[in-house]
Structure formats: structure tokens, C-alpha cells
Predict the structure of UDP-MurNAc hydroxylase.
Amino acid sequence: MRIDTPAGSILCDPWVNPAYFASWFPFPDNSLLDWETLGQVDYLYLSHLHRDHFDAAHLKRFVSKKARVLLPEYPTSELEDQLRELGFTDFIKTVSEEVLELDGGLKIMIQALTSPTDGPIGDSSLWVEYDGVRLLNQNDARPTDLALFTSLGHVHAHMLQFSGAIWYPMVYELPQSAKTAFGKQKRDRQFDRTWRYIDDLKATNVFPIAGPPCFLDDELWQFNDIFGDEGNIFPDQSVFMKEYAKVGGTNGVVLLPGSVSEITETSIETTHPTDVDEFFANKVAHLEEMRERKRPVIEAEKASWRHPEIDVLKEMKRRIEPLLEESIYLAKGVGGPVRFDLVGYDGDAVESIVVDFPGKEVRRYADEKVRYRFRTERALIEHLLFIDEVDWVNSLFLSCRFSAARIGQYNEFVYAFFKCLSEERLQYAEGWYDEHQRTTDAEDITLGDWVVQRRCPHLKADLTRFGIVDGDQLTCQLHGWRFDLPSGRCLTGVGHQIRARRAGEPAPTADGDAPEAAATPA
């Protein structure tokens, strides 16, 4: 998205090239736009380092290095470092949640989210104001509420994510009926969260952006939402408009590549390069045309992945074991061995390697039970090691080029660790979990027949806004996490106990004794 004002232009997250092992492509296709012109901007804003937002090849080739970078306040310097490597030199280092006035009366504010689960160590939203017209590019970010933005005045354009951007549940080795059921749950939660954000901000116009990707490799084609599968987590903008209408939404605006919306305090006028409804009615034909056109790009990427000279076990030991030794919270959170089954070039031979978190070592599989098992091509792991990739989540896992199985609940610490395969990232994640382990949330609220802590134990969402009680279960709609209220146990993942008691029961005493409903886990 490009924002143009009389005081300057801001290019946001230009993504054109395939991401995640050539798995994700932008849809609709934007590669045929006049990027030579679009890249001549005054300001550049990259919301976070996910490769469907941070397209290094495109930034290097097409975006003016004279552009001033609006830099979110992140805990590590990775975003700035990578942009400097691409040739950018002028950085405006913003302070999270502080309004900054730029030249000509253009005002901006960036809210940075910095938990280890927000993007690759950070995600952000951009608020812009010029001459009384305000825009919020929320993008992928999931703030606990939007009160900060509403306090700055009425917003006229709200851009936000509505579609899935993950590998769950498609890659899990489950019966198709279970995948469909879990996928439908996730799809419904995505829309529920979107409606909540829209209702919070109450902007004049709502723009569905930041998704979905499309999948053009024949091996991944089934992930496109073109088969009438109610469990597909990648609904497109036309589906958003239909679902939004069901909840009373009348102010949605869909943008295609090349669309332009001119927004004032009292009006909006949008022009499109082609008819929007007709475009989405012909979605399959557009995808098939893209697939043939992009096939050489995919094949060229695949040809670059094999590195038979790499001893995978040796290199994984060298890279990962020092991090295991340093890890306290993440290793304890994983709590068991994680197995990688690597399928050889012939498609048959399998080498199994275990990352043993309690034992602090990487070794060959020894026929033991494991918490998580991932199965992928050996070539993909070779490539990650060859390029010294520090984030296997923002590469292998988002590629969907693997299958997975697990014992028990979702474990966020598994993915947090494999997102932090560098000293800098690991130390930050360990410190974040340490701080949040020590922080207690003393405020309680009443939801239905229950008294619960106000902040969700997962990522501190305000349960007065996102909490839904159904019988003895509470669901936090921000991320869909569920809790059993009588026991306080998290039903979605490990390590997140909630404090809860029935309304009318005594609260925990000052010396720390608590009723059974709020008991801590063993």
C-alpha cells in the first residue's frame, strides 16, 4: 500500500516476490505494476520482518534509497540492520505510541508490539494523519485494544488483516474431517477478531488487506480457497465482504493492485483497474494463469535448495546446542524432545534427528517418544543451515512444506525457540518470558458466572473486550485461546494458567492460599 499526501508519500510493506521457499505469492498479483514509479517515495514503512512484508529483493531493486525509513521501536536492531544492508541510510527511529510530526504537517505514530510471538520479534501498526484525515494501517498486528488510536480522533480509513497467515491446521497429520473442523474454527475466530477490531475503531471505511497469500506450486495448490472447503483458513477479500455484510458491515472497500481510493473527512472515491466482482468471480482462471507464469520462478528456487556437502546433524549440533545450553524458559516450556524426519533427495530415505530440550543436545533419534515431530525435505534444512537462517518459523514453517504431529496441546515455546536461533533473539525471548513470569495480574473482572483475571495469560489481551464465557470455558477471541475455568487449565497450549473462581466464592487470601478453582498446576 502507498499513502500519498501533499506533505509526502509513504510506501508500506511492498511484497512482490515469492516468500517462504517459493510457497507464498501475493494475490491478486501485483508484479506487473509500475514499480519504478511507485518506488520513488518520501518514506518507507516496514511493519515487521516477515518475508511477505519485508521483500528484500524488491526493496533493493525498486525502492528509492533516498526514502526515509519510519522505523518501529523494536527490541533488536535486525530490521534496521537488514535495511542498511539493502542501501537505506536515513532512519527515523520512532518511539512506540508517540505521535511524530514530519515535514509539511504530516503526522505519524507507530505502535510496536514486542512479544516473542509478535511476528519475528516484533510487529507494528502505522497511524497517519494529514489535514484532519486519519488512517490506521493495522496490517497483521494484533494489539490488545485500539483505544490509543481512537483517542487521537476519528479514523477515516482502517486497513487490517482478516485472513489466515499460518500453517495450522493444514500440515498436521490428522483425518481430513478433523482438519476441516479445526480449520473452520480458526476461520471463524479470524473473522470474529476482525469484527471486534472494526467495532473498536469505528472507522468510516474498512479495507481488508494483508492477505491471503496464494499457493502456485503444484504441491501446495490445495491450500488455495477455491474448492468450497469451509475449513480453509485463507478466505479472500470477496469472502470478507460477504461475511462482513452478514454482521451488518456496509463500509468495506476492496482494493486490487492499481486501485486508488481518495479519502477526505466526508467522502471516499475509489477507482479500479478492472471490475472487482468480476475479478474474484474468475479467481481460478487468474490463479491458473499465475501458476504457469510463475512456474519457472518456483523451479529456479527449488534448484537452489540442495547442499549435499552439509552434514545436517553436525551443523544442527553446532548451531543449536549452544542455544539450548543458554535457554531456561524456552527449553523448560518445550519440556521434551522434538524430532525432525528429513526425507532424502530420492523421496524415500529418512534421517531422524532429535533436538532434546531437557538433555540440551542435538542427536540421532533413539526410538523414544517425542512431543513434536516434523517431517520435511532434507534439502530445506540444508538450505536453512547454508544461509545461516536464524528464524526457521519465518522460513520453513510458514512455507507449509512439512507435516507435523504432536502429543498433547499446542506448545508455543517450540515455535518461539525455532524463531530465535541467534544469541540476540534467544536472549531477548528468555528475558521477555522471565519478565512476564514475574509479573502478576492482580485485577479481576466478572464474566458471566465467573470471576477471572482481567488480562489473558497468553499475551495479556483485555478479557473485558475479548473474553467470552460459555459454560465452564473461557475463550479469548484475540488469539482463540481457551481455558477451563474450574481448574484454570489452558486447553489450547501449555504454560498459561488462568486465575478463576465462581462468582460468590471467596477470593484467594492474602497469604497466598487459593480456592481449588484457582489452583496452580503441579
Observations:
- The chain has three domains: 2-299, 312-433, 441-502.
- Residues 108 and 128 are 4 Å apart (CA to CA).
- The first strand starts at residue 2 and ends at 5.
